[in-house]
């Protein structure tokens, strides 16, 4: 039986570290990344079904889309919850059954209980049950797959044909799921397990070829939560990836996320460098050993964090990092230690957030037993930079917020940020690869460079001196790293503004004032717009991972 399936990717909360609105404007994109989960799900559905994808971060949902659809499939991450619920309401008001899945529904199914269908679990292990039920006439139902049982070597090539690559800064692919570590605050191990499962070389190269054939060039993000979780599989894959890249003139530059022990393996670093990885997001969380041990992140304690980060820089990959404020073991004045760590590691892009007890985590279970957990509704949009601390802390909340504010104010002060960029720019040892130049890509990058020069010279005179000092310094001393350095300077156009907003929001929280709205949009409407369009204009979306425009 043929069915018309409308796949709707909900908007992310735009109050996000990773929304990257300024970078999108510079590079002419609509939002950072397309919905990898939905286009993978699309490849699992019956071939005779007709599919259409609407990414509400990049385009409008039109009434005609819903008129066409027999059903709607939607879902996403926690920062998308508000819009996912709105999508459900819009669809149900028009009589369309809604199928909800994705990581937030897996963690908090009760939030979506009013949807006609819940499909909970990794799609490869559960979607067939839903398809069979739909084909036999079911119009309501809940389906749950077994945790950690999916063989992802049977996962299909995502339907890249459903997206428009030019709308995005980068496109994601996935090599593995799961992470071998046991961090107390992490929900990845609860969703995907502690035994990483990896795709085969042939499978992964087929995905990259499909993306290449779809016309994408430039930045590709391996969205794995820890790319080196299954190091044996990765070591088998990287030589094949390097050969594939070389044969095609290195069409892609890769970013990913990995644990800090990546720095321990010089061979692995060299292989990633030769395959053209240029950026790695690392969860540092805290420089305090006692805090790391308490949070069960012991892998970060057996090393000098600064030496480890510098080793990754020396392998040609810039490091982005996550830091968390609000652990029970912190002491007053912890801000200074975190600032010193960031300066010692010379990491420009630092995602600094408040500790959050995410649904289903060990942290949430512990705090619940201790009677310290607050209602999760306090998470207002799911952004851990502007929300978080959804529990009763052991030290005064005001004290924690003041420390958090001090870290943000220090590390995103322009002089400090650009000094770190210069340090990293001199340290990066990018590989000398025989890259095939693509005229339209070169044109896009040159236009982006001109825009950022204009923006930082005329629109932001406060950044003029920092920009030109950094640009000329790296052009002179390490020109091979100039592209990476420009990326980090572009990111400041968003991150500096966002940090300023968070600091002002923290002042209001400290003083007990109402919450503020970040970068209000005058073109937004909720529900159906006066001209018949559904919902609002596009809003940038954050990545689940390190999002870099390239």
Describe this structure in words.
The chain has 19 helices and 14 strands. It has 550 residues and is an alpha/beta fold. It folds into 2 domains: 4-144, 3-Layer(aba) Sandwich (Rossmann fold), CATH 3.40.50; 170-427, tm_1862 like domain (pyruvate-formate lyase- activating enzyme), CATH 3.80.30. Strand 4, helix 5 (103-107) and strand 5 (117-120) form a beta-alpha-beta unit. Helix 13 (334-345) packs parallel to helix 15 (397-411). The protein is globular, with a radius of gyration of 23 Å. The model is unreliable at 518-550 (pLDDT under 50).
If you average the pLDDT, what whole number results?
91
CATH architecture tag of the largest domain: Alpha-Beta Horseshoe
Low-confidence stretches: 518-550
Tally of structural domains: 2
Which structural class should the secondary elements be placed in?
alpha/beta
Biggest sheet statistics: 6 strands, parallel
Question: Fraction of residues in helices?
Answer: 40-55%
Main sheet: which strands, in order across? Answer: 2-1-3-4-5-6
The CATH homologous superfamily of the largest domain is named tm_1862 like domain
Beta-strand portion reads 5-15%
Q: Would you count the extended β strands for me?
A: 14
Give Rg in angstroms. 23 Å
What's the CATH class label of the largest domain? Alpha Beta
Name the overall outline. Answer: globular
Tally of separate helices: 19
CATH structural fold name of the largest domain: pyruvate-formate lyase- activating enzyme
C-alpha end-to-end distance: 43 Å
